[in-house]
Amino acid sequence: MTVDQRERGALPAASPLRIPAFRRFLLAHLVSATGSAMAPVALAFAVIGQGGGAGSLGIVLTANTVPTLVFLLMGGVLADRMSRSRILFLGNLGAGAAQAAVAVLVATGSATTFAISVCACLSGVSAAFIAPAAQGVASRLVPKEQLQQANALVRVPGNAVKVIGPVVGGFVVSFTGPAWALGWDAATFGVAALLLLGLRLAGAVPSGAGLVADLRTGWAGFRSRSWLWSYTAAGTAVVAAWLAGFQLLGPLVADHDFSGARSWGLVQGAFAAGLLAGTVVCLVWKPRRLMLVCVLASSGIMLPLAALGLGLSLPWVLGAAVVAGIGLDVAIVSWSTILQQQVRDDELGRLSAFNAVGERIAIPVAYLLVAVASAHWSSHRILLVCSAIILLATLANACVRDVYRIRRVG
Fold it and tell me: Which of 10, 180, 267, 354 is 20 to 30 A from 377 in CA distance terms?
């Protein structure tokens, strides 16, 4: 039965968990998360292990990000035209193949910055098609008034695994090397792909226009919503500063100031614990001014960057990571709910793709700037700059009038 039938009472659903297809979607997230939770630690120390530093890690992360930017808009158009479950199936298979290749390279001692970058590139292409298709799944499976709960529930299994995943990943990398963690991540992508294929989600009815015309229509819809483009513009600075600081410089600072992979695994675990706590908050707290909450909550990610930049002890960094995780998950759930409630299903893929491109477009530049700046500035100083950028972008976004107009439905 359809969502409309459930809304009319033909199939009462007090919770999204009563819907079998939604439970399958949750299971796919859980399986994939068991590998993805360890992957960042493994990838960072795979690069470090073959003699790379900030420059090498920046190149690998850039190689992963640029293809995503190039293909995201195409992924958005296809998500509004084709079967979203088939797109998710193929995207997860591609990502799994890329991780498997990295695992083999690392295990055989053949890994180089160039080889890892090629695999990261393939993974980035897969992500470009996965993200827009995944954004529209929950709105197909549950009624609108249950979307916040559904979006929070989708993040529960992944966040729960992430609490211990990075810690386990840190110890696995320390004692056996990164190849095993990367191999496990590849296997979980394959299992998740099969589960997602079973959702059998058809695409929207094609408009009859070409791909370029569909992109133009999506761009017009994006520009007409000030709450959407202003949040995306702020996200251009926030996401770039966060990833350049946390994902690129974080492991290097942990390797220098603390005990390397094990310490960074603890930081990742603390951040994941915060994400899980933020999910619980979203299950019980349903604010009306959802857009304002989304904007303000996302600013918490500046805290661990500031803690690392100030050279604080590991307990302070762990506490800051927990608070950042809480705020970020509240923002993510709120944003997904806003998009799904405020945007029509046949536009959701394209508009979410424009948002994703906007938020990611500065990431390669940020990675490269940090790699260059690291030759002249200390990592601690760069981290403080990244933290300040996040704060300023958040304050600017909070001044947009439409941020106060968008409210939760139901």
Answer: 267
Q: Using alpha carbons, list the distances in angstroms from residue 231 to 10, 226, 344.
A: 38, 8, 19
Tell me 177's DSSP state: -
Q: Is the pTM of this model over 0.85?
A: no
- Domain coverage including residue 116: 18-404
Amino acid at residue number 89: F
The three-class DSSP label of residue 312 is coil
Specify if 2 maps to a domain.
no
Instruction: Output the six-digit token pair for 69.
Output: 């930017």
pLDDT tens-place string over residues 172-229: 777 767 777 788 888 899 999 988 887 877 665 555 667 788 888 888 989 999 999 9
Burial of 380: CB neighbours in 10 Å, binned 0-12, 13-18, 19+: middle
Q: Does a structural domain hold residue 351? A: yes
Question: How many domains in the chain?
Answer: 1
- Kindly list the distances between the CA atom of residue 10 and the CA atoms of 55, 138, 199, in Å, as whole numbers in the listed order: 58, 19, 21
- Contacts with 376 (C-beta within 8 Å, 6 or more apart), sequence order: none
pLDDT, tens digit (0-9, with 9 covering 90-100), for 237-250: 999 999 988 888 88
- Quick check: is 10 in a domain? no
The H-assigned helical ranges of 108-146 are 113-135, 137-141
Q: CATH code at 172?
A: 1.20.1250.20
Relative orientation angle of helices 39-49 and 261-284, to the nearest 10 degrees: 160
Q: Is position 7 within any domain? A: no
